[in-house]
Amino acid sequence: MFALSICNSLFVLLDGTSVLVFIVTFLLIYWSTRRHPGIPPGPGRWPIIGNLGSLAGPDKLKVFRDLRCKYGDVFALYFGSELTVVLNGYEAIKDAFLKQGRYFSFRPENDFTARSITTDLVFGNGPEWKAKRAYIMNAFRDICFIRNGAVLEKIVHEELDLLIDDITHIEKPFCPRKTMSLSFASVMFNILHGKRPERGDKRFQWYLDELDLGFQRFLNTQLRHYCFPWLDKLPGDLLLLQYTSDKSAKTIEYFDEVFKQREMNALQGSRDCLLDFFLSEDSPLARDEIWKCHHDLMAAGSETSATTLNWMILFLALYPEVQAKLHAEITRTIGKTLPAIRDRSEIPYVEAVILETLRIGSNVPLAVPHFVKEDVSFRGFLIPNGTTIIANVTSVHHDPSVFPDPFAFRPERFLDESGRVLQASEQVIPFSMGQRSCIGESIARIELFLYVTRIVQNVEFKLPAGCKRPTLNGVFGITYRPEDYNVDIAKRN
């Protein structure tokens, strides 16, 4: 009897423990999979990973198109426990970033952004960010746009002289990606330092390789932080925090070297380049954060434009009739003379080709994330304080209701019936919109015009004979670039 009593007590205890475990497990699963009440619709949420499973698939942009078709222009996803609202279509993005910009013009504030190597210029908020942005925009104006942009024209044409000389001596199929990245990066370096980097500078090439690697790794690293933040408590650098720290230290060392060179060589009080402005007494940038601002401007000011030109070369090779018409328009209007900023309105077909490339390529497809710092009512939904906001730019650029046959490369869609008047489309938004639009948009548009015009004046791109035709598949990351491809380059007479 005594033994039976003990057994009964154990069964009761086990049953109670099992019930408790069941209840706790149920509550944890419920808590980790429930969706906040009132938020935009979206797929069911899984424990720990949230909605990462819903993003599975080789073509991430198609995944977002499918989610929009199912859930509408405003839907919500969870990356781990982080709530993210995705805006689709021009009107939804405009409503948020322009009409309700006071709520949607913040950048995310979380552990991941705090540990990244970005400055207030990209992820800052509040008065300090506004002061730095205004200061840098004024510096751009004073450096690049005096005498109707003559300084910027000179910098770009000096770089194009070298680029065209290089590519016209290439005699075999050639992948343009790294060459174009180096060229645009050299322009931005020149604006920052008052001179271009030395040709063959291995340290500068190392830095560009690090930038490229950072662009590729950023999203994956961000998702690990959101879904598995506890990994930083385990042995090993599973969240790449030490890796990031080591890279930051090497980048700081590199920038210290180039800063010291400028300080030694610049005249007292000179303001001939951005670094002069950063180092001046009235600069809102502290000395120890100048390198971060420099890093942000190099990354944003070179890689996005280079990616656009990389797409354009591919389109010109795939659509030789467009390339022939582009060359004919340039020849008819300015011949072999160097293009100038004032020529932009005279060669509308160049601008149309650039717009069509920006539209299809969508080189920053999900823009830079925004953030809300208080509960916001938007289109009948609740967007809770602390939510990340993503603008799906490709949902605008590839919208068949706005751009019929959206994946066909047709620059003529931006011209009137005469082909002589550019129909500027407000719905091409590669630089985003509102208070957080790209700080270098004006420079980028001028660069692209000068690059496209000079290059097409001098060379023709062709698909290599006997090679597989390139696809329009992209490599998804912070930027969206075409898969590497080769072209033949023929020098024009």
From TrEMBL:
The keyword rRNA-binding does not apply. Signal peptide: none annotated. Its cofactor is heme. It is found in: Endoplasmic reticulum membrane; Microsome membrane. It is a peripheral membrane protein. The keyword Cell division does not apply. GO terms for cellular component: endoplasmic reticulum membrane. Heme binds at residue 438. One of its GO terms (molecular function) is monooxygenase activity. Keywords: Endoplasmic reticulum, Heme, Iron, Membrane, Metal-binding, Microsome, Monooxygenase, Oxidoreductase, Transmembrane, Transmembrane helix. Belongs to the cytochrome P450 family. This is Cytochrome P450.
